[in-house]
Amino acid sequence: xxxxDDDDPIIQEIDxxxxxSLVEKLYLFQYPVRPxxxxxxxxxxxxxxxxxxxxxxxxxxxxxxxxxxYCRSKGEQIALNVDGTSSEDSNVYSTKMxxxxxxxxxxxxxxxxRYAAAVFHKGELHLTPLQGILQMRxxxxxLDKADTKHREREAANEAGDSSQDEAEDDVKQxxxxxxxxxxxxxxxxxxxxxxxLQKKQAEEPWVHLHYHGIKDSRSEHERQYLYCQAMDTTxxxxxxxxxxxxxxxxxxxxxxxKVVKPMGPSNVLSMAQLRMLPLGEQVKTLMKNVxxxxxxxxxxLLASGTDSTxxxxxxxxxxxxxxxxxxxxxxxxxxxxxxxxxxxxPAEVLCRGRDxxxxxxxxxxxxxxxxxxxxxxxxxxxxKDFLEQMSAPRLNRGWEFLLPTDHDFVKxxxxxxxxxxxxxxxxxxxxxxxxNFSKDDFVPKKDAQMEPVHVSGDQRLKSARENARENHxxxxxELDARRLKASRYTGSSNESGALVQVKQEPMSDSEEPxxxxxxxxxxxxxxxxxxxxxxxxxxxGHSHSFTPELQDFVRxxxxxxxxxxxxxxxxxxxxxxxxxxxxxxxxxxxxDRMLQDTILQSQCKQxxxxxxxxxxxxxxxxxxxxxxxxxxxxxxxxxxxxxxxxKNYRVRRNVIQARLTQELGDAVTKxxxxxxxxxxxxxxxxxxxxxxxxxx
Length: 696
Known about the structure:
Layout: E1 15-18, E2 27-30, E3 45-51, E4 56-62, H1 72-83, E5 100-109, E6 116-121, E7 124-129, E8 132-138, H2 141-162, H3 184-192, H4 194-203, E9 207-209, H5 217-223, H6 243-250, H7 271-274, H8 279-290, E10 292-293, H9 295-301, H10 308-318, E11 319-322, E12 325-328, H11 330-333, H12 347-363, E13 366-367, H13 369-376, H14 380-390, E14 391-394, E15 398-401, H15 407-412, H16 414-435, H17 457-490, H18 523-526, E16 533-536, E17 543-546, H19 548-561, E18 563-565, H20 566-578, H21 592-600, E19 604-607, E20 624-627, H22 635-645, E21 650-651, H23 653-664, H24 670-680, E22 681-684, E23 687-690
Parallel strand pairs: 1-7, 2-8
Antiparallel strand pairs: 3-4, 3-9, 4-5, 5-8, 6-7, 10-12, 11-12, 13-15, 14-15, 16-17, 18-20, 19-20, 21-23, 22-23
């Protein structure tokens, strides 16, 4: 330093003073959306308020409505949208015109210890530390109020429309629940939630301020506090520091943070580092990265000579057996107190949804994403994650399990397979309670874990073609026999002397006459039946391959749901087919016409209910069927209800109750009406709709 003194002489010495009068009150306001040449110093400030703890400031500034740059029509329109036509004291714009603008503060930095306001006067530098640096930006909260007004008007209009119907005051049952004591984990989650932070911010009251212009006498008086008020006291000591120490105080060296080098990328495993871990951690790490793996592959990734019995013991702690392969457990992928990266759903809910997907794969090879999402009711991104972890999309077949069934493992370790099978039965019972689905919707295959079946696409296509040829030959023989029998009864001729012929039903899907988009399912997936019982179709003269099993399915479905549209019946039928073992279907090739005729022959009737004018229902969704006769006394209640809905697509409860009392007498109770509405109707906006006419 001594050698550099001659090259860097001292030009001037300045005394520096620390002013403390405004230490906790001095803020720096910045206006980032306004150029420095256009300040707000000469603009009228109407109001100011602050929340000191949050350092949140709001300023109301008047707008020059007489300026040639001001659009009066837009200003009046904004005021009308915000306040409406009423004149109230709470209106935002009292002049019926947008005549003011609000600025709201955003903290530019949370640490202001390195910032100060400086005043240089008569060779002295006075510094006052800043309490906060705030960026003032325009606030558009008036748009939120306009949106609220708009929704209120829409709600009022809807209420006005519905008031045309007869109003009623229904007595509603209220369930009182007592909250359980809050755990520490739940309390921490609640404190860190966005709603809690918003509530805490709203609890701090506003402190209203008076604004004084830059040339106001009060401002001049306050600016005097920027100078140190106690310059002659002993507190102002000289700075006795060497130049190096003073420089270090001004610019302290940055502390080097010691960063622990990660083991590797999240999707890459170092086998050398992996094998340094305990066996249980090795298995857990591998399963978390791979997610689905045969046992033989797992043994190949571990060090040679590893005991398979010990590996089996470890794998059962972190994975479950699905079709002879090991799939990592849900709670390993989604630990406790974590949330979905897509939707923020808690880990407990994610685990239940993923367990349902895994359980379904223990029963069948393929799943439909929409059906899974409809049951577990999770965001689409999470459902897609579940499926991508253990399956792959297949064209027109949904999502197929990633690996073929490992029969060798099941045969080699029957005790492990049986133990896993019993574990899945316990998981199934829990899932049934959580998601409230019926066992009829998913019929488990017999010993699905012990005797899984996997058939390739080529094998299915070959089997379907062979079955089609056999069915064609069988049907041809039956048709020949019917021709011979018919010729005996009619003398081998009709009135014109021509032979009587019976039209053969086409075998291909493209030639099949259909009511809507096509057949319900592809018969080649589950195979064709060995024998069929043709039933004549009065609509088109064709004979259908109709089985009593189809009628049993329709009857059981309508005794459970009572009212269904054609598309929903098709969906349930496809779901039922998917639960059957591959190649064991007894339904054959079922078309829309066959299914519709079967419904009408199963004590059901089509309900010609009118649909709302704005409804986007398809032709299949507009075909609504209801159970007309089931042998119960309650059939009369349903028949009266169906007749009501044939005249109007939405009805109030009191209208239904009055009509039931009129038709069936005073014996109709509130319990009967509740049961009827629960079985056949849905409530929406205070009105009742027939099931199938509005989205579930």
